[in-house]
C-alpha cells in the first residue's frame, strides 16, 4: 500500500510458509506472486475467485486498485480463522453472483471484534475500507490475554499457545513504533551533518536477515538543547502522513532518553541532489516538473499543518523511484503558533542561507512565504541538475566577489535587495 502497488489476488493460497515456527520462534510467511491479473481474466474465472475478488472488480475488472486488496484481505482473514475452509467457494457460479448482487456477507466469527474488522474490509463501498496501517493498529488491539476467545473461531482443533501471537511487532502491550536497539543491525552510513548522522539499518527481530531496511537518525552530541530540538523534529515528523513526505517509522531508545534515535523509511535512491547529478541524461523536463509538482503537493500539505520546513533544498528531497520523490529532513522545521503566520527564530545557528528569503536573512522571520522562496531556489537546482559548479552558493559567491567573503549574510542580503537573482539555467523553459 505504501508503494501504491496493488497485489490483486490476496488469499491464503497465495501466502507461503517460509518457516513453520516452534515455541522459541514464530512462523514466517511471505505473500506470493498474484499470478494472472484480474484485469485480463475471463468472467467465469473471476466468478471462481468469489469471495476473494472484490465486487467492483467483478463488474469492472479495470477498476482493480488498492481497495480491492483490502476486500481480499478481509476474506483471507476469515479464511485463516476458519481453519482454511471457505464454503462459499464450493457454490455454483450463479449462487456466488447472487451473493455479491445481494450485498451479502460471510458468516460472522464469534469473536465480535474480529467480525467487525472483517466486515470493514469487506465493505461493498471501496472508499470505506480501512487502510492497512489502520488494520495493523486494529489487529494489535485484538491481542488479549484471554486466549479462550480464540478457541471458538476455528472448527479445526488448533492448539493455541502463548507463542501463537509471538510476532515481535504484535507482542502484547508493545507499541509498533518503538524499535528495540538490540534488533537494529547497522549496515552503512547514509549521511552525516553538523548535528547528526543517518545510518542504514535492518530491523531484524527474528535474527534471520528478513527484517525491514530502515534509515536511523541519531545525534552527534546529545546536549540538552540538541536533544530538545531532536525531540521536536520527531514530534513533527510523527504528526505528518503524506505521499510526498518521508514516512516516520518510530523511535529507538538506548541509554534512556539521551540515546534517542529516529527511525524512518529507507529510500534506496538517496537524495535528489545526488540523483540528478548521476542521472541527468535520462531525466527530461517532464520528469523534473513531476518532481516539482510532488514537492509542491507535499509543501501544500505542510502549510495546512502550519509547519514551516525552513530547509527546502534538493539535498533534503529523497528519491523513492524515478517517478516519486519525498520531502525529508525536518531538523529545522517549526510549527507556526495559532495566532501568527510567521515564526521568529531566536537562535539561527548554522543555516542554509543561500536558500533563505530576504526576511529570513534580515530578521530571522520564517513563514510559508519563506518556504516558497526556498522552493524557487530548489527549482533552480532541479533545472541545473544540481551541477556543483552552478549551485546556489557558488553562483551567489561569484556575484559577491572574493573580497566580500567575510560577512556573507550582509552581502547576500544586499544582492537580493538589488534584485540580483540566480541566472536562468541553460535550456530551462521560460515559464519555469
Order of helices and strands: EEHHHHHHHEEEEHEEHHEEEEEHEHHH
How many domains?
Answer: 3
What count of helical segments does DSSP give? 14
Give the number of DSSP strands: 14
CATH class of the largest domain: Mainly Alpha
| Low-confidence spans | 144-175
- Mean pLDDT, as a whole number? 84
Strand content: 15-25%
How is the CATH topology of the largest domain named?
Transferase(Phosphotransferase), domain 1
* Helical proportion, percent range: 25-40%
CATH superfamily of the largest domain: Transferase(Phosphotransferase) domain 1
Q: Give the strand order of the largest sheet, numbering strands 1, 2, ... along the chain.
A: 3-7-8-6-5-4
Largest sheet: 6 strands, mixed
Q: What structural class do helix, strand and pairing data support?
A: alpha+beta
Q: Give the CA-based shape.
A: elongated
Amino acid at each position: 500500500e505504501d508503494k501504491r502497488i496493488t497485489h490483486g489476488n490476496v488469499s491464503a493460497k497465495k501466502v507461503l510458509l517460509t518457516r513453520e515456527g516452534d515455541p522459541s520462534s514464530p512462523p514466517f510467511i511471505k505473500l506470493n506472486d498474484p499470478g494472472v491479473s484480474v484485469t485480463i481474466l475471463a468472467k467465469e474465472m473471476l466468478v471462481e475467485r468469489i469471495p476473494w475478488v472484490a465486487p467492483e472488480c467483478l463488474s469492472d475488472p479495470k477498476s482493480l486498485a488498492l481497495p480491492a486488496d483490502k476486500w481480499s484481505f478481509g476474506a483471507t482473514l476469515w479464511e485463516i480463522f476458519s481453519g482454511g475452509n471457505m464454503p462459499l467457494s464450493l457454490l455454483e457460479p450463479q449462487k456466488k453472483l447472487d451473493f455479491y448482487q445481494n450485498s451479502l456477507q460471510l458468516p460472522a466469527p464469534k469473536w465480535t471484534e474480529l467480525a467487525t474488522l472483517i466486515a470493514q474490509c469487506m465493505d461493498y463501498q471501496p472508499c470505506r475500507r480501512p487502510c492497512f496501517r489502520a488494520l495493523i493498529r486494529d489487529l494489535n488491539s485484538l491481542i488479549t490475554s484471554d486466549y479462550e476467545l480464540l478457541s471458538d473461531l476455528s472448527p479445526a482443533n488448533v492448539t493455541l499457545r502463548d507463542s501463537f501471537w509471538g510476532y515481535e511487532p504484535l507482542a502484547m502491550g508493545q507499541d509498533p513504533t518503538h524499535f528495540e536497539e538490540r534488533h537494529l543491525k547497522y549496515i552503512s552510513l547514509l549521511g552525516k551533518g553538523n548535528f547528526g548522522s543517518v545510518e542504514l539499518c535492518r530491523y531484524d527481530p527474528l535474527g534471520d536477515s528478513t527484517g525491514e531496511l530502515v534509515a536511523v537518525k541519531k545525534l552527534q552530541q546529545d546536549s540538552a538543547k540538541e536533544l530538545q530540538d531532536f525531540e521536536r523534529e520527531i514530534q513533527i515528523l510523527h504528526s505528518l502522513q503524506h505521499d510526498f513526505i518521508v514516512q516516520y517509522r518510530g523511535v529507538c531508545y538506548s541509554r534512556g532518553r539521551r540515546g534517542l534515535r529516529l527511525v524512518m523509511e529507507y529510500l534506496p535512491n538517496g537524495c535528489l541532489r545526488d540523483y540528478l547529478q548521476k542521472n541527468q541524461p535520462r531525466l527530461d523536463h517532464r520528469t523534473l516538473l513531476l518532481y516539482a509538482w510532488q514537492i509542491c503537493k507535499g509543501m501544500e500539505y505542510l502549510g495546512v499543518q502550519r509547519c514551516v520546513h525552513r530547509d527546502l533544498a534538493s539535498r533534503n528531497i529523497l528519491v523513492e523511484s524515478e517517478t516519486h520523490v519525498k520531502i525529508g529532513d525536518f531538523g529545522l522545521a517549526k510549527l507556526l503558533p495559532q495566532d501568527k503566520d510567521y515564526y521568529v527564530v531566536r537562535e539561527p545557528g548554522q543555516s542554509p542561507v543561500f536558500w533563505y528569503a530576504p526576511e529570513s536573512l534580515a530578521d530571522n522571520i520564517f513563514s510559508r512565504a519563506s518556504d516558497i522562496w526556498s522552493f524557487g531556489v530548489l527549482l533552480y537546482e532541479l533545472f541545473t541538475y544540481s551541477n556543483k559548479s552552478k549551485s546556489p552558493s557558488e553562483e551567489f559567491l561569484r556575484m559577491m566577489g572574493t573580497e566580500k567573503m567575510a560577512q556573507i549574510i550582509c552581502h547576500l542580503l544586499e544582492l537580493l535587495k538589488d534584485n540580483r537573482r540566480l541566472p536562468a539555467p541553460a535550456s530551462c523553459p521560460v515559464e519555469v
